[in-house]
Write a structure and sequence with these properties.
217 residues, 3 helices, Alpha-Beta Plaits, alpha+beta, 40% strand, 9 strands, five-stranded antiparallel β-sheet, SIMPL domain-containing protein, SIMPL/DUF541, Translation Initiation Factor IF3, four-stranded antiparallel β-sheet, 26kDa_periplasmic_antigen
């Protein structure tokens, strides 16, 4: 099958056509998830952890000052890792690395650059992920699905007309095919500029595909 239309020429009654339809819509994202935070290192764990905690506390406060509710700021990752160097096959303790990353969720997509810059100004030195997504993706998924069904029918009509046949008004079977899920990730870069980091959300692409079977006569 491989996604290509084909017709049944075997001596069976009734004859059928199988087609695959695709549908695609685009939408501007209306929600963004930003993962950022602080990574600190040193040989005294207590001091490294205290420094990290101070930075993260300042980041949280600064984001709340932007109008982001506290419940929209949550710990995404927290780790304390010992660091080692290796010399002549020997493991030498170098110190500790403390990582504390926050996930910020906001519907004010246009504020993404400001969020990043504000956090960086308070000591954030890691922006690991920015994901643009949709609050109600099912609206666009249904639109794409409708287009896929129409596309499948158009293919079936084209095949039938070429054969000098007609198809039934509705397919006797329709199968929705798996679709990719999840928001499109955007990797951010840090800029040592005083202007707002220009992060462009662009548009999200939502696709759907179906396989349909029609009787022909």
């Amino acid at each position: 099958m491989n996604g290509y239309p084909f017709y049944n020429t075997a001596a069976k009654s009734p004859s059928t056509i199988e087609v695959q339809g695709e549908g695609t819509v685009t939408a501007s994202p209306d929600r963004v998830l930003v993962v950022l935070g602080a990574i600190t290192e040193g040989d005294a764990l207590q001091l490294v952890q205290a420094e990290n905690a101070m930075i993260v506390t300042n980041i949280i406060q600064s984001l709340q000052n932007l109008g982001i509710p506290k419940e929209k700021i949550q710990t995404y990752d927290f780790r304390i890792d010992p660091q080692y160097d290796y010399e002549d096959g020997k493991q030498i303790f170098r110190g500790y690395k403390v990582t504390h990353l926050l996930q910020i969720t906001t519907d004010r997509v246009e504020q993404t650059g400001v969020i990043v810059d504000t956090a960086v100004s308070q000591g954030a030195n890691s922006v690991s992920n920015i994901q643009f997504t949709l609050i109600n993706p099912e609206i666009y998924e249904n639109q794409a699905l409708s287009l896929a069904v129409r596309n499948a029918r158009q293919k079936a009509v084209t095949i039938a007309q070429t054969l000098g046949a007609t198809i039934a008004a509705i397919p006797f079977r329709v199968q929705e095919l798996p679709r990719p899920t999840g928001p499109i990730p955007f990797k951010a870069a840090l800029f040592a500029d005083s202007t707002v980091t220009p992060i462009q959300p662009g548009e999200l692409t939502i696709t759907a595909a179906v396989r349909a079977w029609y009787y022909i006569a």
